[in-house]
Amino acid sequence: MYIDQKDTNKFLKNNFEKYLQDNLNKWGNRTIKIRIKPSHTEKCLQAVDFISWAIFRKYEQSDYEYYEIIKNSIVEENLLFP
User: Fold this and answer.
1) CA atoms within 13 A on the CB side of 49
2) Contacts of 69 (CB under 8 A, 6+ apart)
3) Least enclosed by CB within 10 Å: which of 15, 23, 27, 82?
4) What is the pTM (predicted TM-score) of this model?
5) Distances from the Cα of 75 to the Cα of 12, 37, 78, angstroms
6) Residues 63, 76: contact at Cβ < 8 Å?
7) Cα(61)–Cα(65) distance, rounded to whole angstroms?
8) DSSP class per residue in 9-53
9) Has residue 7 got a pLDDT over 80?
């Protein structure tokens, strides 16, 4: 699992990684490795950033331009707070 490294504080980073690992272990999943990296170093994080930004623009700015690029790949879309 790749996580964007938004904070350079080593304590916060380690604390967040421990929190994630502890919760994954509670679910019985001990096989997932967590990697916290800057998004500019990982293509998968850049893709997720684009997708979340495109969906954000759709709902917050009524801008569908980039959402149109990804909409056929979306399996399910639900608002958390309609």
Assistant:
1) 14
2) 54
3) 82
4) 0.68
5) 34, 27, 10
6) no
7) 11
8) -HHHHHHHHHHHHHHHHHTT---PPPEEE-GGG-HHHHHHHHHHH
9) no
The conformation of residue 72, written as its DSSP 8-state character, comes to G
57 is written with which tokens? Answer: 């623009």
- Comparing 22 with 29, which gets the higher pLDDT? 22
Cα–Cα distance measured from residue 79 to residue 60, given in angstroms and rounded to the nearest whole number: 12
Q: Is 82 exposed, middle or buried (0-12, 13-18, 19+ CB in 10 A)?
A: exposed
**Residue linked to tokens 């980073």:** 13
pLDDT tens digit sequence for 29-78? 667 888 888 889 999 999 999 999 999 999 999 999 999 999 999 999 88
